[in-house]
């Protein structure tokens, strides 16, 4: 059988996802309009709606009073059983996923996956499902995987002081993104402590546990690294990390299957040398 694609977009680097997200939200809008009937936005007591673009709000979503939905720059889409709490400003284009809570703050030009808990300021960012950024702190021009928990006041820099192009660590070297604004790329199951600071163009591998010393974290942290107050704790086993991930997943009624566990164990072995080299650099610094 023949498989044909008339139009395809090749993404070379992770920051391409952020660059195209606005456009993809508009593409999703057309599809979502066909899939189901959406609530009449005028019937939201206490919410203040601005702009002439679309508001797609599920009939099962709950929008509290003292919220602002602004479609001046693009559509605002709020999916099934999502909750938007008071003191929230949503500026389109943005998508709020199923059963996600926006607990106050500002979300603009972003896609938030399902069953997330998001507060503070989020700009030009993609957050995958089951991830939490519940408290104050800035997250901009970033990509966040699933099952991530960003502690209170975790803040990501997405702009250099000299306004020069951001370089991102890819494959062991710094790659010029050609963009002035690039935040962080954060893998699945990453946890950051309160008060964490992430540098412009940071890459954090899967299942990392980061505890701040007050200084920004290294720009690249290999997968499965426990980086605690400027030191690498290399005695934490992959099984302990998987167990911690399972505890978080259980809070949402999800079980990690055996295929996922095998995948993480294999990735742990494949990145062992990266972690060793990273630990040596930390010791020398």
The tally of domains stands at 1
What is the name of the CATH topology? UDP N-Acetylglucosamine Acyltransferase, domain 1
CATH architecture: 3 Solenoid
Rounded to an integer in angstroms, the radius of gyration calculated over CA atoms is 20 Å
Q: Tally the helices.
A: 4
Number of strands: 27
Terminus-to-terminus distance: 57 Å
Q: Strand portion, in percent?
A: 25-35%
Instruction: Determine the CATH superfamily.
Output: Hexapeptide repeat proteins
Structural class: alpha/beta
Give the assembly state of these chains. Answer: single chain
Instruction: Provide the low-confidence segments as ranges.
Output: none
Mean pLDDT: 95
* Largest sheet report: 9 strands, parallel
Helix content: 10-25%
Give the CATH level 1 class. Answer: Mainly Beta
What's the overall geometry? globular
């Amino acid at each position: 059988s023949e498989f044909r694609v008339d139009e395809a977009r090749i993404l070379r680097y992770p920051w391409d996802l952020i660059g195209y997200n606005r456009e993809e939200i508009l593409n999703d809008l057309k599809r979502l309009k066909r899939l189901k009937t959406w609530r009449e936005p005028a019937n939201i007591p206490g919410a203040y709606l601005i702009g002439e673009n679309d508001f797609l709000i599920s009939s099962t979503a709950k929008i509290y009073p003292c919220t602002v939905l602004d479609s001046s720059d693009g559509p605002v889409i709020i999916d099934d059983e999502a909750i938007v709490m008071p003191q929230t400003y949503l500026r389109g284009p943005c998508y709020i996923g199923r059963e996600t809570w926006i607990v106050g703050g500002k979300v603009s030009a972003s896609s938030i996956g399902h069953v997330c808990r998001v507060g503070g300021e989020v700009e030009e960012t993609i957050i995958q499902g089951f991830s939490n950024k519940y408290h104050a702190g800035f997250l901009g021009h970033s990509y966040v995987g699933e099952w991530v928990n960003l502690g209170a006041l975790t803040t990501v820099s997405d702009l250099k002081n000299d306004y020069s192009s951001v370089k991102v660590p890819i494959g062991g070297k710094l790659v010029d993104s050609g963009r002035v604004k690039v935040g962080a790329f954060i893998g699945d199951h990453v946890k950051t402590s309160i008060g964490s600071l992430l540098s412009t163009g940071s890459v954090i591998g899967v299942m990392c546990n980061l505890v701040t010393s007050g200084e920004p974290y290294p720009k690249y942290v290999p997968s499965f690294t426990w980086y605690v107050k400027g030191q690498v704790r290399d005695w934490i086993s992959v099984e302990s990390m998987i167990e911690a991930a399972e505890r978080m997943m259980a809070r949402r009624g999800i079980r990690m299957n055996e295929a996922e566990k095998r995948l993480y164990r294999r990735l742990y072995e494949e990145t062992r040398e990266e972690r060793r080299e990273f630990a040596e650099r930390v010791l020398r610094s």
